[in-house]
Specification:
The complex is a heterodimer.
Chain A lengths: L34 H16 L6 E5 L14 E4 L5 H11 L4 E7 H7 L1 H10 L3 E7 L2 E2 L5 E2 L23 H6 L6 E6 L3 H13 L3 E7 L11 H5 L4 E5 L8 H6 L3 E3 L5 H8 L5 E8 L6 H4 L8 H15 E2 L12
Parallel strand pairs in A: 1-2, 1-3, 3-4, 4-8, 7-8, 9-10, 9-11
Antiparallel strand pairs in A: 5-6, 7-11
Chain B lengths: L18 H10 L19 E3 L1 E8 L5 H15 L2 E7 L15 E8 L10 E6 L2 H9 L3 E10 L8 H16 L3 E5 L1 H5 L10 H12 L4 H11 L5 H21 L4 E3 L8 E5 H12 L3 E4 L6 H11 L5 E4 L3 H14 L3 E5 L1 H17 L3 E7 L16 H6 L8 E4 L3 H18 L2 E7 H5 L1 E5 L46 E3 L13 H19 L7 E2 L4 E8 L3 H13 L4 E6 L1 E3 L5 H6 L1 E8 L20 H10 L4 E4 L8 H12 L1
Parallel strand pairs in B: 1-8, 2-5, 5-6, 6-7, 10-11, 10-12, 12-13, 13-15, 14-15, 19-20, 19-22, 22-23
Antiparallel strand pairs in B: 2-4, 3-4, 9-16, 14-21, 18-20
The chains are: A alpha/beta, B alpha/beta.
The complex binds thiamine diphosphate (TPP), iron/sulfur cluster and magnesium ion (MG).
C-alpha cells in the first residue's frame, strides 16, 4: 500500500540500538520460571540484531499471560481482544507494509477462540512473525484445559481429566493451503529458539512459530521429561534450516536432516507423538502475500479521488436540459 | 386498514372519454386482444393528467421485473419527474416459479414534484403471472380499483391446475373491483425472443413508457445503457421488445397518463442508498473497508469492491464480522480511519471490537444497514430495530456516536461526516441506514467533491519526548493519538483500563479518570450539534418524532394533515447519541408527542399491556429517559417502509 515512505528520510543521528532500547520500563510480571520470559529475551535480542527501529515495530497480541508481552517491549504494542490478534495485525499490515509486525498469542487465544482467524491468517500469508506460546493450558484464567492440553489432564474444568485428544497446531498449520513458514521451538533451548525466531522474522510471509512454553504455575512437570532427556527432542537440521552451535549439537544428538521445502516430510514430523521436533518444519518463500496482492496501483490522492468520483457520478447523472445527456445506470 | 384517498392523487380527466368508463369497458374485455393487428395511429388517446402515480412491476425472480422497474424509474427521472423506487425482493435467490412468496420486482412512485418516500398503495401493477400479483394483493399493496396489466398466457395453460388458478384469481380480482387488463405478453414477445423469460421485461417497459407518455427515444437510450455490457445483437432485440411494448399499448390500451415534469436546474444523480453509501466511503478518503457478506449491506460492498481499487484502496472480505471489525480497527490504528459495513447480526458480532475501539480511542466508522431482527429475522426487509443495540449493545460504559441517514443523499454525506467525527474525536461512529434506503432510488443533487472531506495524511513526525498517548484534555477529554511510525510515540495500547501513559490501571482513581474522559468527549461533541428543524409549525397539537428512513413518509403525512387543517408537525433526528440541545424545548411546545418508528412497541390495550409493562419503540425509550416527557410511540414491524397514509391515520387517531 501507499504508506508514508519514511525510510527515505535521512537518519541524521546514526543510532545503534541496544537490548535496553527494546525494554519497556515495566518489568515483566510473569511467574518465576515462566517460559514467556525466554521468549521475550529472544525477541529483544532479535530486535537488537536486526536493528529494528522501535517506532516501526508493532507487537500485537490477544489476551492471556503470553499476550502481556507487548507491554514489556519498547515498541508500539496492541494488546487487544482475546483471540483477535490476527485480524488486528492484518489490518495494520494492510496499509503499513513499512511496519514490522509481530503477533504473540497463546494456545487458547490462537487455537480456541481465535481458531477461525488463525486458519485464515495462514491463507492470507501476510508478512508477520507469529509466536504461539503453547503452555497447553489457560494460564491467565487459572488452569482450564486448552485445545492443546494432553488427554487426561486434570484442570479446573476437567477435574476428572481432559476428555479429548489434543489439537496439533503443527499439523493444522501445515494442512492449510498457502502455508509458508512453520517452526517449533522450546523455551528451554534458548539458542535454537533465537535462531528460529530470527529465521521466522526473515521469512517474508506468515511465519508461524509454536513455542513449547513451560508454565510452572499450572503445568509444573509437563515438559520435565523433555528438559531432562534431550534424546526426546528431535532437532531438525539443514543448511536451509537450523545451524547448531557445537554445544547444542553435543547435547541434542537426536537430529534429522530435514529440508524445509519438503511439505510431506514436514507433515510426518509434525505428527510425531513420542518425540518433540524442534526446528523449521516448512518454508516456502514463493507464496504471495495478501498485502502485495491487494496493493493499489495508485496512491489515493485527492486528485484521483475527485476523478474517480466524477467518473462514477457521470454514470448516474441526469443533466439539466441545457447539458449533455447520458442515461443513468439502473 | 386503508388510508383515505389522498388529495394529490385525485385524477383530473382531460380526455374526451371518461376514464372510468374506458376502464370499465376494458375490465370486461377478457379475451386477450393481441391477435388483432394494431389499428392505425389515428386511435390517439388523450392523456389523463395526474400529479402522481405508483406503479409496480412484479414477476418471478429471473424474469427481469427489477431491471424493468429500475429502468422505468431512471427514464422517468430523466424526464424530470420526481421518483422513488422500492425493490420488491423475494427472500430466496431462486424461489419456486409462480409462487406468492417469489414475487420480485420494483415499485416506482412518480410525481410532478420531488418525493421522499415510496408512498401508499399502487395505482397500476404489471404482473407476469397471477401468483406474484396475488402476493401484492394479499399484502394490501394495491389501491382499490388499481389497474392491473396481467400476462394472459396462463389462461390457456396446458396444466389445468394453472389454468384454473389463473381463472380463479382473475375472477376474484375483477369481482373485487380491480381494473384488470389481460395482456398477451408471451405471444407478442415470442416473435423476438425464444425464451420470453428474458424479454418480457422490456416489452413491459415499452408499455409503461407509452402509458405514462414518456419519450421513447429516452427509453431507447436507457435500454442501450442498461445492456451496455452486452453485445449489439442483444441490445437490438431489447430495443425491438421495448418498441413492441410501446406500440402494443398505444394500439390496444385505453390507458394514458401524463404527469407534469420539470427537468432539474442542476445535475442530479440517481442511485440507491447502498451505492450512495459506497460513493460516500470513497469521498470520505477512508482507505480500508473490511466486511463480511450480509444482506442487505452486501450491495454496498459489491459496488465499493468495483470502484475502491481505482483510488488505491481496499475492500477486505474477512472470515467473519468479528475479524472484519478487528481488521478495520487495526487499519485505523496504524493509518487513516477505516470502515466496516454490516447489518444487525454482524453488528452483534462486532460489539466486542467496538468496545475495544472505544476503550483504546481508535477512530472507527461502523455502518449498519438494518434489516428485520432479532436473529436472522427478515434479511431482505426493512426495520429500524438496531438503535438501542448501536447505543448500548456492548458491555461496560462505551460512549460512541450514533447517527442515522434519512435519505439516499444522506447515505452519501453521512459516511463523510462520520469519518470526520471519528477522526476528530478518536471515537466510534455508527451510521444506521436500513433495507429500505439500501435499495430505494431517488435523484439528488450531484455532489461536488471537496478536498476537505478527506482525512489529512497520517502524522509520522516525532512526538515530544514526554508526551503521553492518553493525555486527556481536562475540558473535552480529547487526545491526540500516536500512530505507529511516530518516533517517541511508542506505547502499548490496551483494552484494559489504562492511565495516560497507556499503562494498565490497577488504581480505582485511574480507572475512573479514563471512563470520565471518554464520556466527556461525547459531551464535547454534543456541543457542536444544532437543534434539528421542525417540519410544519413550531408548536401545535401533535409532534411526530422520527429517525432514519421514515423521514419522507412522516413529513408527507404531516403535510397532508396540515392540509386538512390539523396542527401537526414533525421532528427528525440525525444524531441519536448524543442528541442536540434544544430538543426538549421543541417537545414541550406540543400537546402530544409520539415517535413513529419501524420497530416494535407494545400498544397499551389495557388488557395485558399497561404503563407498567409497556415496551416502547427505541427512540421513545431514549427521549423519555432523557427528557422526562411522557412520549408515546407507534411502530410497525411489517418489514416494509412505513406508508405516509398509515402515519396520517395514526396521527388522526392520536388527535381525536
Ligand atoms: C471474550 C473473552 N472470553 C474469555 C476471556 C477470558 N480469558 C482471558 S485469557 C483466556 C485464556 C488464555 O489462555 P491462553 O490463550 O492459552 O494464554 P495463556 O494465559 O496460557 O498464556 C481466557 C479464557 C476473555 N478475556 N475474553
Ligand atoms: S501462570 Fe503460567 S503462563 Fe502465566 S505467567 Fe505464570 S507460569 Fe507463565
Ligand atoms: Mg496457554
Amino acid at each position: 500500500m501507499h504508506a508514508p515512505r519514511t525510510e527515505c528520510l535521512l537518519n541524521l543521528i546514526d543510532q545503534e540500538y541496544a537490548i535496553r532500547d527494546y525494554q519497556s520500563d515495566i518489568p515483566p510480571r510473569w511467574c518465576t520460571g515462566c517460559g514467556d520470559n525466554a521468549i521475550l529475551t529472544a525477541i529483544q535480542r532479535l530486535c537488537r540484531d536486526e536493528q529494528l527501529p522501535p517506532e516501526k515495530t508493532v507487537f500485537v497480541s490477544g489476551i492471556g499471560c503470553s499476550s502481556r508481552l507487548p507491554h514489556y517491549m519498547n515498541a508500539y504494542g496492541f494488546h487487544g481482544l482475546h483471540g483477535r490478534a490476527f485480524p488486528v495485525a492484518e489490518g495494520i499490515k494492510m496499509r503499513r507494509p513499512d511496519l514490522h509486525v509481530f503477533v504473540t498469542t497463546g494456545d487458547g487465544d490462537c487455537c480456541s477462540i481465535g481458531a477461525a482467524h488463525w486458519i485464515h491468517a495462514i491463507r492470507y500469508n501476510m508478512d508477520m512473525t507469529v509466536l504461539m506460546h503453547d503452555n497447553q493450558i489457560y494460564g491467565l484464567t487459572k488452569m482450564q484445559a486448552s485445545p492443546t492440553s494432553p488427554r487426561g489432564l486434570r484442570s479446573n474444568t476437567t477435574p476428572r481429566g481432559a476428555y479429548l485428544e489434543p489439537l496439533n497446531p503443527l499439523t493444522v498449520t501445515l494442512g492449510v493451503p498457502n502455508v509458508s513458514f512453520v517452526a517449533q521451538a522450546a523455551d528451554w533451548i534458548p539458542e535454537t529458539l533465537f535462531d528460529i525466531v530470527s529465521q521466522a522474522y526473515r521469512h517474508k510471509g506468515f511465519s508461524f512459530v509454536r513455542v513449547l512454553q513451560r508454565c510452572p504455575e499450572f503445568m509444573p512437570h509437563r515438559f520435565d521429561a523433555f528438559v531432562q532427556d534431550p534424546s526426546l527432542t528431535r532437532l531438525l537440521v539443514h543448511q536451509k534450516g537450523l545451524t547448531l552451535t557445537p554445544d547444542t549439537s553435543r547435547t541434542y544428538r537426536n537430529q534429522e536432516i530435514h529440508d524445509p521445502g519438503d511439505l510431506n516430510r514436514a507433515r510426518e514430523i509434525a505428527s510425531l507423538t513420542e518425540e518433540v521436533p524442534v526446528g523449521i518444519l516448512y518454508r516456502n518463500s514463493e507464496v504471495p502475500c495478501y498485502e502485495d496482492l491487494r496493493e493499489g496501483e495508485r496512491p489515493n490522492t485527492p486528485g484521483l479521488i475527485r476523478t474517480v468520483l466524477d467518473e462514477e457520478f457521470d454514470k448516474f447523472t441526469i443533466w439539466p436540459e441545457d447539458q449533455p445527456d447520458q442515461p443513468a445506470a439502473s | 386498514m386503508k388510508p383515505q384517498v389522498r388529495a394529490e392523487a385525485e385524477t383530473k380527466p382531460v380526455g374526451k372519454k371518461s376514464p372510468a368508463k374506458a376502464d370499465k369497458k376494458k375490465a370486461q374485455t377478457r379475451k386477450p386482444a393481441g391477435k388483432k393487428k394494431a389499428p392505425p395511429a389515428s386511435r390517439r388517446r388523450l392523456a389523463e393528467a395526474v400529479t402522481e402515480h405508483i406503479v409496480e412491476i412484479v414477476s418471478d425472480s429471473g424474469e427481469g421485473a427489477q431491471r424493468c422497474g429500475q429502468s422505468f424509474g431512471s427514464i422517468a427521472a430523466r424526464t424530470g419527474l420526481g421518483i422513488w423506487t422500492v425493490e420488491i425482493i423475494p427472500a430466496e435467490i431462486q424461489p419456486p416459479a409462480r409462487s406468492v412468496a417469489g414475487a420480485s420486482g420494483n415499485r416506482v412512485r412518480l410525481a410532478s414534484r420531488r418525493i421522499m418516500n415510496g408512498g401508499d398503495e399502487a395505482d397500476l401493477v404489471v404482473a407476469f403471472n397471477e401468483q406474484v400479483l396475488l402476493s401484492r394483493v394479499r399484502a394490501n399493496e394495491l389501491k382499490p380499483g388499481c389497474i392491473i396489466l396481467l400476462e394472459s398466457k396462463w389462461r390457456d395453460d396446458p396444466d389445468p391446475a394453472i389454468a384454473q388458478s389463473y381463472a380463479e384469481v382473475t375472477a376474484e380480482l375483477t369481482a373485487a373491483g380491480y381494473r384488470l387488463h389481460e395482456i398477451p405478453m408471451e405471444e407478442e414477445c415470442v416473435r423476438f425472443v425464444p425464451d420470453t423469460r428474458r424479454g418480457k421485461n422490456m416489452f413491459a417497459l415499452g408499455m409503461l413508457c407509452n402509458i405514462y407518455s414518456l419519450d421513447l427515444a429516452l427509453a431507447q437510450a436507457q435500454v442501450r445503457f442498461a445492456f451496455r455490457k452486452k453485445d449489439e445483437k442483444i441490445i437490438d432485440i431489447n430495443l425491438e421488445l421495448l418498441d413492441a411494448g410501446y406500440q402494443w399499448a398505444d394500439a390496444n390500451l385505453d390507458l394514458k397518463f401524463a404527469i407534469k415534469a420539470a427537468r432539474p436546474r442542476d445535475p442530479q444523480i440517481v442511485v440507491n442508498g447502498n451505492t450512495a453509501l459506497a460513493l460516500g466511503v470513497v469521498g470520505s478518503g477512508m482507505e480500508v473497508c473490511a466486511m463480511y457478506p450480509i444482506t442487505p449491506a452486501t450491495s454496498a460492498s459489491h459496488y465499493l469492491s468495483d470502484i475502491f481499487e481505482k483510488v488505491g484502496c481496499v475492500v477486505h472480505q474477512a472470515e467473519d464480522e468479528i475479524s472484519a471489525c478487528a481488521f478495520a480497527i487495526g487499519a485505523s490504528y496504524a493509518g487513516k480511519c477505516a470502515v466496516t459495513i454490516t447489518s444487525g447480526p454482524g453488528l452483534s458480532l462486532k460489539q466486542e471490537g467496538i468496545g475495544l475501539a472505544v476503550m483504546a480511542e481508535i477512530p472507527l466508522v461502523v455502518v449498519d444497514v438494518q434489516r428485520g431482527g432479532p436473529s436472522t429475522g427478515q434479511p431482505t426487509k426493512a426495520e429500524q430495530g438496531d438503535l438501542l443495540a448501536a447505543c448500548f449493545g456492548g458491555h461496560g460504559d462505551a460512549p460512541k456516536i450514533i447517527m442515522a441517514a434519512a435519505t439516499i443523499e444522506d447515505c452519501f454525506y453521512s459516511v463523510i461526516t462520520a469519518r470526520k467525527i471519528a477522526e476528530t474525536f478518536n471515537m466510534v461512529v455508527v451510521v444506521l441506514t436500513d433495507a429500505s434506503l439500501a435499495t430505494a432510488q431517488q435523484p439528488f443533487p450531484r455532489p461536488r467533491f471537496r478536498e476537505d472531506w478527506l482525512a489529512p495524511p497520517i502524522d509520522q513526525s516525532a512526538v515530544p519526548e514526554d508526551a503521553k498517548p492518553y493525555d486527556w484534555d481536562p475540558r473535552t477529554g480529547m487526545i491526540e493519538r500516536f500512530i505507529p511510525g511516530q518516533p517517541n510515540g511508542m506505547h502499548c495500547l490496551t483494552g484494559l483500563a489504562h492511565d495516560r501513559a497507556s499503562r494498565v490501571a490497577y488504581d480505582p482513581e485511574v480507572n475512573e479518570e479514563g471512563i470520565r474522559n471518554r464520556s466527556l468527549k461525547l459531551a464535547a461533541f454534543q456541543r457542536t450539534l444544532k437543534t434539528p428543524p421542525v417540519h410544519g409549525g413550531d408548536e401545535g397539537d401533535l409532534l411526530l418524532v422520527g429517525w432514519g428512513s421514515t423521514k419522507g413518509a412522516i413529513e408527507e403525512a404531516v403535510d397532508r394533515l396540515r392540509a386538512e387543517g390539523k396542527a401537526v408537525s414533525s421532528l427528525h433526528l440525525k444524531f441519536l447519541q448524543p442528541m442536540a440541545s434544544g430538543i426538549k424545548e421543541v417537545l414541550q411546545r406540543f400537546d402530544r408527542v409520539m415517535t413513529i418508528e419501524n420497530n416494535w412497541c407494545d400498544m397499551p390495550d389495557g388488557d395485558l399491556i399497561d404503563e407498567y409493562n409497556r415496551r416502547y419503540s427505541s427512540l421513545a425509550w431514549l427521549l423519555r429517559a432523557r427528557h422526562l416527557i411522557d412520549i408515546d410511540c407507534w411502530g410497525e414491524t411489517r418489514g416494509q417502509p412505513i406508508k405516509p397514509g398509515r402515519i396520517a391515520e395514526i396521527a388522526r387517531g392520536k388527535l381525536s
